[in-house]
């Protein structure tokens, strides 16, 4: 199996360090297991920068690092791992420069791929998000299957539901936390007890933290449920992934404080919840340090509503706390929109000027000379996107129809003995009783016959399940291609709509510019 994640690089200094790290001769058999594409390994940072300077939207990300790790059980060769990494890039990012290195200094062979953030042909920025990460993982899984490697099987909702059911049963039966753990072990769960209690269900390869199931499954909540027999409303945790977009430390801290303020019953319980993720310093100032952070962050520096006095007020006098928070936010809004705030006004002017310049440069680069051409491009893209959506919908319907035939064939053979027994019963009373006891199965059997009759080929035979599965695979690949095209169209349409909005703003605020002379030259 291959575990895949992607992270962002935001500074030139870190980019150089990252490339130097992955090209360590001791980890790559004296650089034997390294390669690059459309750049040299020695001068990659500078070559990345040359392409990146051509991008219209620069953004904060200057590069991305893909990490692809293979299971020790697969016994993969470093050269094969390197080849799979290169195929992954060719499949998903054919026009992006990258440096790749395969490390074999640990039990698990793994690839580090550092790629530019800008396409060297179109100069478009790569947008890394949850959808692109999912696509990256699926492509990696397909390559693993192609070369006979194992694939990670995600924990499905039904499995998580089963785990919750088993935990709830253990809580209701146990008289102590230690007994709760013993009951889970009897149910064949592997348990790891540490800072966070984790378990591995029978047949699974990975552990999950129990607290990831929700607020009713934290160590503290489970102990309260066992000791006091209380019911705790389960709220799913707010998960902020560092794999696609790293959340700033201060924003992460604010989000967690807001979440724990809602969960806690008093100030002490609030601090207890915060200690699950942060080290806390109390004294003259209340401050927090995350495990990935380098220094403590004072709560008061997050805003006036996060001072220690305000946090205590939240539990001591909730009504007074709400009023004060409203006052603080009102003052913040007034300050932001105050016309006497010269800095804010100057910043807005500079930002608007930058937007106008970038907009005009983009329009000229795409040979759009008038407002009417801009509107025409938007209409064209909307029509094309609508056509693509109709095509994808039709493909989905075809896939659903073929899957229903496969299901019907399976149902037919599953319940055929039941139906054959039903027709051999002579007694009307027994036949009626048998029908009442087996009605859903017999109805499914009859419905499967109708579906199969409607799906027969011109020669009167049924299509083979293997042929249907192959056709579904082909249709799915076609749908994926259309979906990729739709993503491109959607992004392009969003860009043009943003350009139209900015153009409208310029027209409205420019004296003498009317609808009749909206020329963008």
SSE arrangement:
Elements: E1 2-9, H1 12-22, E2 34-37, H2 44-52, E3 63-70, H3 78-92, E4 98-103, E5 110-116, H4 130-146, H5 157-173, H6 177-186, E6 190-192, E7 198-200, E8 208-209, H7 219-228, H8 249-263, H9 267-274, E9 278-281, E10 287-290, E11 297-298, H10 308-316, H11 318-337, H12 342-365, H13 371-424, H14 428-454, H15 465-509
Antiparallel strand pairs: 1-3, 2-4, 3-5, 4-5, 6-7, 7-8, 9-10, 10-11
Helix pairs in contact: 3-4, 5-6, 8-9, 10-11, 12-15, 13-14, 13-15
Oligomer description: single chain
Whole-number count of domains: 4
What gap, in angstroms, lies between the N and C termini? 55 Å
CATH class membership of the largest domain: Alpha Beta
CATH fold name of the largest domain:
BirA Bifunctional Protein, domain 2
Query: Biggest sheet, strands in spatial order?
Result: 1-3-5-4-2
CATH architecture of the largest domain: 2-Layer Sandwich
Rounded radius of gyration (Å): 30 Å
